[in-house]
Write a structure and sequence with these properties.
This protein has eleven helices and 14 strands. With 309 residues, the chain is an alpha/beta fold. Helix 3 packs across helix 4 and helix 3 packs parallel to helix 5.
Length: 309
Amino acid sequence: MHARGLTKRFGALVAVNKVDLDVPRACVYGFLGPNGSGKSTTIRMLCGLLTPGAGEIDVLGLAIPRQAEALKRRIGYMTQKFSLFDDLSVRQNLEFLATVQGLSRHDTRLRVDELLRRYRLNDREEQLAGTMSGGQKQRLALAGAIVHKPELLLLDEPTSAVDPESRRDFWEKLFELADAGTTILVSTHYMDEAERCHRLAILDNGNLVADGQPKELTEKLRGRTFVVHADSPRRVKAALDSHPDVLSVAQIGNELRVLMRRDDVSLEAFRHSLDGVDASTDVHTVPPNLEDVFVVATRNPGQGEERAA
């Protein structure tokens, strides 16, 4: 999948601004960004549901949106609302979706039986979808999205309404699909999910501000992250917030995670910057994480320092 100069405007609002994407086959490719960053709009343009204002899109060798109709049978799409029929049973939901996708009656029966077993729904096949828990609905929605064995699966914040255990189980299912050859695009605002992706794009205000493997992106920030243990963390945070070399300070219990603007601030120099603070502190360096990447990317738009090949 490739996109060049992908742009979408809604009136005066530029929802997606000249985005370039390259998504390898059989890859779990994540879109990370706050609400309104352009994640959902980008996914909808890639699958032909929205027409871009500018740019070129190639999905599975098809030019989108011109060949969007031919793409429909080759992709699966799942939203955070799950798009289930609440008054149909689990089996009826899957049978209906299989029919819509053009499966024969014989193939539908075999495929639905397989999915009920794989997603642990065979003991609930007669239960109405509207009476299921969030995690059960999620498994059913995923089964429905892949009932026709799509080559590409697009997931728009699919874990926002489920518990942590269901989220973890859901991601195991995604990796199983990727291992079998399915390309997966998934949007999320959870850092722990973004870290799981093979490759990650960070969007902010419609701009692609970072793109690469999570480890590549975090490695670029090595030397910029410190942790401060303090008996008066709020006092220390106030001092650090006004320091010209500090980009962000996040309090985690009695610890402060500090992200610097530059990577040439030594541990001793950082300690020295706290000499005037009337509080007991202990400072050490820590490896950068994806949240640090997100902060740098979204607070320094247009610099491109986090882009990776």
